Amino acid sequence: MPETVIAPPPPTLLPVAGTEARFPVRRVYCIGRNYAAHAVEMGHDPDREPPFFFQKNPDDLDPSGRFPYPPRSSDVHHEAEIAVMLKSGGTDIAVADALDHVFGYALALDMTRRDLQGVAKKAGRPWEIGKAFARSAPVGPIHPVSEVGHPSHGAIALRVNGKLRQEGNLDQMIWKVPEMISYLSEYFTLAAGDVILSGTPAGVGPVVRGDVLDLAVEGLGEMTVTVT
C-alpha cells in the first residue's frame, strides 16, 4: 500500500443492530420532496415528476444520539426519514432487481439549516450549505433485510419533547425504494456502502437546543436524538 502524505481520514462506520459488526459508508444520496404532503407544505406541486437528489457527506451520518446545533443558522429543521443501506450496486439497475442490492434499513433525520437553504434556493445555488453540514444526519442502528425484510408500508412519526410533529406512512412515498435505486443507477455507479435517505412526510419544523426528538417507524423501532 503506498505511503500517504497525510494520515487517511477515518471511515464512517455505522452500527448494525444486534451485532458488533459495522457498516462502512461510501456515499450518501438524499431524495427531495418524496411525500406529496411535504411537497405541498414546501410550496411545490405534488404531482409525480422525475425525482431529484442532493448529497450529504459520509461523516454527516451520526449514530451518537446527539445533534449539535450548527453555527451560522437560527432556523434548523427536523426531517424524519428512513435510510436505505446498499450491499452492492452497479449501473442501470432494473426496478425489479433493485431490492437485491439492499443490505438493510435504519431510522434517520435529515437536519436542515432551513434559512441557509432558502437563501441558496433563491440564488439558484446548490443546497450543501443547508444540508451537508457536520453531523446533519443522525442515524439509528441498521436493521438487516434478513431480520426486517423490505418495509414498504408502516407508520412513521416524529415527536419533539413528546408532541407529535410529523406523521405519515412509508407507502406514501412518491418514489418507492426500488425506483430510487434504479433511477440513481442511471446517473451514478452505485456500490456497496452507499446510503439513500428516502424523504420525509409533512410536518417539518424548527428545533432548539435541549429539544428531544423521538422518531419511530413501524417495523424498524425507535430512535431518540437530543439537540445540544
Helix content: 10-25%
CATH superfamily: Fumarylacetoacetase-like, C-terminal domain
Low-confidence spans: pLDDT under 50, at least 5 residues?
none
Number of beta-strand segments = 18
Major sheet, described briefly? 6 strands, mixed
How many structural units, i.e. domains?
1
Verbal overview:
It comes from Jannaschia seohaensis. Keywords: Hydrolase, Metal-binding, Pyruvate. Pfam families: FAA_hydrolase. GO terms for molecular function: acetylpyruvate hydrolase activity; metal ion binding. This is Fumarylpyruvate hydrolase. With 228 residues, this protein is of the alpha+beta class. The chain has one domain: Fumarylacetoacetase-like, C-terminal domain (Fumarylacetoacetate hydrolase, domain 2), CATH 3.90.850.10. Helix content is 15%, strand content 32%. It has 5 helices and 18 strands. The strands form 5 sheets. Strands 4-3-15-8-9-12 form a 6-stranded mixed sheet. A 5-stranded mixed sheet has the order 6-18-17-13-14, with no helix packed on it. Strand 17 and strand 18 form a beta hairpin. It is globular, with a radius of gyration of 17 Å. The mean pLDDT is 95.
